[in-house]
Amino acid sequence: MNNTYSKENRSVYLLTVHIVLVTKYRRKVITNDLLSRLQRIFTDTCSKWDCRLVEFNGETDHVHLLVEFNPKVQLSKFIANLKTVSSRLIRKDYSEHLTKFYGQKSVFWTGSYFVATCGGVTIEQLKQYVEKQQSPAL
Protein backbone atom coordinates (compact mmCIF):
# COMPACT_ATOMS: atom_id res chain seq x y z
CA MET A 1 0.00 0.00 0.00
CA ASN A 2 1.40 3.38 -0.92
CA ASN A 3 -0.08 5.32 2.09
CA THR A 4 -0.24 8.47 -0.03
CA TYR A 5 -3.08 10.75 0.92
CA SER A 6 -5.52 11.84 -1.77
CA LYS A 7 -6.54 15.47 -1.91
CA GLU A 8 -9.69 17.13 -3.15
CA ASN A 9 -11.06 20.65 -2.90
CA ARG A 10 -11.94 20.48 0.80
CA SER A 11 -10.62 17.13 1.97
CA VAL A 12 -7.54 15.00 2.40
CA TYR A 13 -8.13 11.28 2.83
CA LEU A 14 -6.81 7.74 2.73
CA LEU A 15 -9.68 5.26 2.93
CA THR A 16 -8.97 1.57 2.45
CA VAL A 17 -11.31 -1.40 2.71
CA HIS A 18 -10.92 -5.16 2.55
CA ILE A 19 -13.71 -6.78 0.53
CA VAL A 20 -14.41 -10.51 0.24
CA LEU A 21 -16.78 -11.87 -2.40
CA VAL A 22 -17.88 -15.52 -2.33
CA THR A 23 -19.16 -17.60 -5.23
CA LYS A 24 -22.80 -18.73 -5.17
CA TYR A 25 -23.23 -21.90 -3.09
CA ARG A 26 -19.48 -21.63 -2.43
CA ARG A 27 -18.90 -23.61 -5.61
CA LYS A 28 -15.22 -23.99 -6.48
CA VAL A 29 -15.50 -22.36 -9.92
CA ILE A 30 -12.60 -19.89 -9.93
CA THR A 31 -9.64 -20.98 -12.04
CA ASN A 32 -6.35 -19.11 -12.50
CA ASP A 33 -7.56 -17.78 -15.86
CA LEU A 34 -10.87 -16.65 -14.37
CA LEU A 35 -9.02 -15.04 -11.44
CA SER A 36 -6.86 -13.03 -13.87
CA ARG A 37 -9.97 -11.90 -15.73
CA LEU A 38 -11.62 -10.86 -12.45
CA GLN A 39 -8.57 -8.78 -11.56
CA ARG A 40 -8.81 -6.88 -14.85
CA ILE A 41 -12.56 -6.35 -14.38
CA PHE A 42 -12.12 -5.10 -10.80
CA THR A 43 -9.23 -2.81 -11.77
CA ASP A 44 -11.33 -1.22 -14.54
CA THR A 45 -14.44 -0.94 -12.37
CA CYS A 46 -12.51 0.64 -9.50
CA SER A 47 -11.04 3.20 -11.88
CA LYS A 48 -14.53 4.18 -13.10
CA TRP A 49 -15.57 4.80 -9.48
CA ASP A 50 -12.48 6.94 -8.75
CA CYS A 51 -11.10 4.11 -6.59
CA ARG A 52 -7.94 2.02 -6.81
CA LEU A 53 -7.47 -1.74 -6.53
CA VAL A 54 -4.43 -2.00 -4.26
CA GLU A 55 -4.24 -5.78 -3.94
CA PHE A 56 -6.24 -8.70 -5.30
CA ASN A 57 -6.16 -12.48 -4.93
CA GLY A 58 -8.48 -15.37 -4.38
CA GLU A 59 -9.11 -19.07 -4.14
CA THR A 60 -11.47 -21.39 -5.95
CA ASP A 61 -14.58 -20.13 -4.12
CA HIS A 62 -13.86 -16.53 -3.08
CA VAL A 63 -11.77 -13.42 -3.78
CA HIS A 64 -10.17 -10.71 -1.64
CA LEU A 65 -9.88 -7.09 -2.77
CA LEU A 66 -8.01 -4.32 -1.01
CA VAL A 67 -9.42 -1.05 -2.35
CA GLU A 68 -8.61 2.61 -1.72
CA PHE A 69 -11.80 4.57 -2.23
CA ASN A 70 -13.01 8.14 -2.46
CA PRO A 71 -15.24 9.41 0.41
CA LYS A 72 -17.82 10.45 -2.21
CA VAL A 73 -18.34 6.78 -3.04
CA GLN A 74 -21.24 5.02 -1.31
CA LEU A 75 -19.55 1.75 -0.41
CA SER A 76 -22.62 -0.49 -0.65
CA LYS A 77 -23.41 0.77 -4.18
CA PHE A 78 -19.77 0.40 -5.20
CA ILE A 79 -19.62 -3.22 -4.00
CA ALA A 80 -22.96 -3.99 -5.66
CA ASN A 81 -21.55 -2.61 -8.91
CA LEU A 82 -18.34 -4.65 -8.56
CA LYS A 83 -20.45 -7.79 -8.16
CA THR A 84 -22.90 -6.96 -10.96
CA VAL A 85 -20.30 -6.01 -13.56
CA SER A 86 -17.95 -8.90 -12.77
CA SER A 87 -20.78 -11.46 -12.67
CA ARG A 88 -22.16 -10.33 -16.01
CA LEU A 89 -18.77 -10.36 -17.75
CA ILE A 90 -17.64 -13.65 -16.19
CA ARG A 91 -20.91 -15.37 -17.12
CA LYS A 92 -20.48 -14.08 -20.68
CA ASP A 93 -16.79 -15.06 -21.02
CA TYR A 94 -16.94 -18.37 -19.13
CA SER A 95 -20.51 -19.55 -19.78
CA GLU A 96 -19.51 -23.08 -20.73
CA HIS A 97 -17.36 -23.48 -17.62
CA LEU A 98 -20.04 -22.04 -15.29
CA THR A 99 -22.79 -24.25 -16.74
CA LYS A 100 -21.01 -27.24 -15.18
CA PHE A 101 -21.55 -25.72 -11.73
CA TYR A 102 -24.77 -23.71 -12.01
CA GLY A 103 -26.65 -25.17 -14.98
CA GLN A 104 -28.65 -22.47 -16.76
CA LYS A 105 -28.93 -20.24 -13.66
CA SER A 106 -27.41 -16.84 -14.29
CA VAL A 107 -25.53 -16.55 -11.00
CA PHE A 108 -21.93 -16.16 -9.93
CA TRP A 109 -21.60 -14.37 -6.56
CA THR A 110 -23.58 -15.03 -3.42
CA GLY A 111 -25.93 -12.20 -2.37
CA SER A 112 -23.77 -11.20 0.60
CA TYR A 113 -20.25 -9.83 1.01
CA PHE A 114 -17.68 -9.01 3.69
CA VAL A 115 -16.18 -5.53 4.06
CA ALA A 116 -13.89 -4.11 6.75
CA THR A 117 -12.02 -0.87 6.98
CA CYS A 118 -8.25 -0.99 7.26
CA GLY A 119 -5.71 1.60 8.15
CA GLY A 120 -2.17 2.21 9.25
CA VAL A 121 -2.88 2.32 13.00
CA THR A 122 -4.73 0.20 15.52
CA ILE A 123 -7.87 1.22 17.40
CA GLU A 124 -5.79 1.36 20.58
CA GLN A 125 -3.34 3.81 18.98
CA LEU A 126 -6.24 6.02 17.85
CA LYS A 127 -7.78 5.94 21.34
CA GLN A 128 -4.48 7.02 22.88
CA TYR A 129 -4.12 9.83 20.35
CA VAL A 130 -7.62 11.14 21.03
CA GLU A 131 -7.18 10.85 24.82
CA LYS A 132 -3.98 12.94 24.69
CA GLN A 133 -5.64 15.87 22.90
CA GLN A 134 -5.62 19.15 24.79
CA SER A 135 -9.09 20.00 26.08
CA PRO A 136 -9.99 23.68 25.68
CA ALA A 137 -9.72 25.71 28.88
CA LEU A 138 -13.05 26.76 30.33
Q: What would you say this structure looks like, in words?
A:
This protein is α+β, with helices and mostly antiparallel strands. The protein has helices spanning 32-48, 75-93, 95-102, 123-131; strands at residues 6-7, 12-13, 15-22, 52-58, 62-69, 114-118. The protein has a four-stranded antiparallel sheet with strand order 4-5-3-6, covered by helices on one side. A hairpin with a 3-residue loop joins strand 4 (52-58) and strand 5 (62-69). Helix 1 (32-48) packs across helix 2 (75-93). It is elongated and about 65 Å long. The protein starts with 5 loop residues before the first strand and ends in a 7-residue tail after the last helix.
Question: How would you describe the shape?
Answer: elongated
Please describe the biggest sheet, giving its number of strands, its sense, and whether it closes into a barrel: 4 strands, antiparallel
Computed over alpha carbons, the radius of gyration is 19 Å
What is the terminal separation in angstroms? 43 Å
Q: How many beta-strand segments?
A: 6
* Structural class designation: alpha+beta
Mean of pLDDT = 92
Poorly predicted runs of 5 or more residues:
none
- Helical stretch count? 4
Q: Could you write a compact summary of the structure shown?
A:
Helices cover about 40% and strands about 25% of the residues. It is an alpha+beta fold. A hairpin with a 3-residue loop joins β4 (about 50-60) and β5 (about 60-70).
Set down the secondary structure blueprint:
Elements: E1 6-7, E2 12-13, E3 15-22, H1 32-48, E4 52-58, E5 62-69, H2 75-93, H3 95-102, E6 114-118, H4 123-131
Antiparallel strand pairs: 1-2, 3-5, 3-6, 4-5
Helix pairs in contact: 1-2
